[in-house]
Write a structure and sequence with these properties.
single chain; 370 residues; five-stranded parallel beta sheet; 7 helices; RNA-binding
Length: 370
Amino acid sequence: MSKRVILGLSGGVDSSVAAVLLKEQGYEVIGLFMKNWDEADENGVCTAEEDARDAGRVADRLGIPFYTVNFEKEYWDRVFQYFLGEYKNGRTPNPDVMCNQEIKFNAFLEYALKLDSDYIAMGHYAQVEERNGKYCLLRGADAAKDQSYFLSRIGQKALSRAIFPIGHLKKQEVREIARRYELETAGKKDSTGVCFIGERNFNRFLDQFLRAEPGEMKTVEGVTVGRHTGLIHYTLGQRKGIGLGGIGNGRPWFVAGKDLARNVLYVAQGEDHPALYSKELTGTDMVWISEEEPELPLQCTAKFRYRQQDIPVIVTKEAGKYRISYPTVPVRGVTPGQAAVLYQAEVCLGSCLIEATVGVDESYVFLQGR
RNA sequence: UGGGCAUUAGCCAAGCGGUAAGGCACAGGACUUUGACUCCUGCAUUCACUGGUUCAAAUCCAGUAUGCCCAG
């Protein structure tokens, strides 16, 4: 009796090829399309419908059963509310990290288990490996597409059931397989934007849910240089949308901080401005994928944003809060709300959520008054 | 109402008689399952205005307008 796998079929190439590979490996594969957001984009296009159709076609071609499941309520309650709450607090959340933690590797997993599934599978570029009785999450083999960052907050229960069929492949190889099997998704462009919500004009999207309060824009030196359209529209390290040109030394401006209480946006000029760099951060809500805290202090590497290059860090813990320091490699634009994901070589150890940072130049501490 | 200086794209700015640098901003695209960053491309048939000199003017001359400075 072959093992049953419920695969998240999104209608993209990656999960399509995952289906192919699972079948080749002899699993009983069931395709499940998740519908978690019910709304057309600003052009009136509902990408979800098209994706569902593509997913269904792939399932047909491969001769696997195909169903749709609706997690709109779960997504709204557990991901979207968090997402809005973070913005309200002046932070920049990462909804897709939460989506994996709460939906794909929780709600979806529970659903699959109820259907007597042995495993769940996803088309992520990441790998699972059992080592000494623990399930480890490894980076995807294609460094350019590695998605372990987004999976850094799932635990042993989910990992013990998870299969990432394409995790050992390069994107190019995935596309080749899709072409060989003549899947309609073979040439489909990679999807971007918030998972399930899609590509949007971000500020307009946020404005539908949150009130943007315009206010003063000041340099970190304290000079008022303009107005901002609402603190929720900016993230630390951001360059586009500040609108300052021709003043100062002529170099570009970047968002350096937010003062929520005074509704002030702080900006700094020049990509090397010290106010933009931090050397340490504190984090909360740590999730260790092994579900066992390693011995601290821990030397490892970390990413503070998706696709950021790994940097060497030291992790310590004081009074329940984690401190991640990187004195040798100052990082620009480390932003509260984002996940600080820890790695030891290819193994993803887990992540915490960035709470605050310590700047390279301590005289800019006021930037923490967000 | 004497003198001096300035006026180049949204902003800053090069140019000093040979047919409009550059930067910032902005727009579009690439990259990207957050949001950024980054990268690529585009962006003054025209130099405050009107005349004149010249084969040729943003560049020289005259006048006008506006702004700044020094004297009154």
